[in-house]
Amino acid sequence: MKKFLAMAGAVLMLTTCGNKEKDYDATGTFEATETTVFAEQSGALMTFSVNEGDDITLGKEVGLIDTTQIWLKIQQAGATKSVYRSQKPDMEKQIAATRQQLAKARQDQQRYKELVADGAAPSKMLDDATSQVQVLQKQLAAQISTMTTSTNALNKQMEVTDVQVNQLRDQLRKCHISAPIAGTVLEKYVERGEFVAIGKPLFKIADTQNMFIRAYVTSAQLQNIKVGQKAKVFADYGDGKKKEYEGTVCWISSRSEFTPKTILTDDERADLVYALKVAIKNDGYIKIGMYGEVKF
Questions:
Q1: pLDDT digits 0-9 by tens, 257-267
Q2: pTM of the model
Q3: 10 Å Cβ neighbour count for 270?
Q4: Hey, which residues does 248 pair with through a beta bridge?
Q5: Cα angle vertex 13, ends 12, 17, to 5°?
């Protein structure tokens, strides 16, 4: 009789445990937006104040690559521009004499025109005066054209110099290493004093304030989930210790994939699931890679 009662109790307990519903709809791991900062210029690291675990604000300068050569090139380009500027002709001064000769020739032309009209001078003198005016006009036009061409060429060379200076200033700006996002330094790859080349990774930073949990749901669950929907997120610290956060579904994959072996869904028999992300505000307790649960 006692053996029968013990077996009945065990069956009842298993039945009760088997019918117990889970208090979450999906599980996953917490992730953050990670950014690797690369060197944009080559040179020695003059300063580099980055340590793993540091919290850095957006735009904060954390390092400087040697700028000596770039500064020297900027000064050289400035001197070159000054030379071009000094070579520009002073048009008014250089054509002043020709203008004066032309004005005198026109006066003579008018005088001979009047004399010829009165019969006091031969027409040849008027022809010579007219020819002189025409020669001086062409000479003046040629001088103006030559100096205009020279001035335009020098102006273009000065513009090229300005472009070079702007390029150098952009290179100078890239020598200043700053944080592209606000976050926490995850990894540090170089030390102060090292020579870095363009493209060399310097450090990795992650936005640990605005995190998300990546979870997987079946198509049956997906029909009741949409972007912008509120959800409850639980950070799992193990031994039944959890902390609740308010979350928002911020992304749902547009294609299905095979169930990851490490992910448990509400329907473990499903071969295809959909990934989604639920964004949360981190209070400093959630760490990247920590397991969590989602309740929609």
A1: 876 655 555 55
A2: 0.70
A3: 17
A4: 230, 279
A5: 120
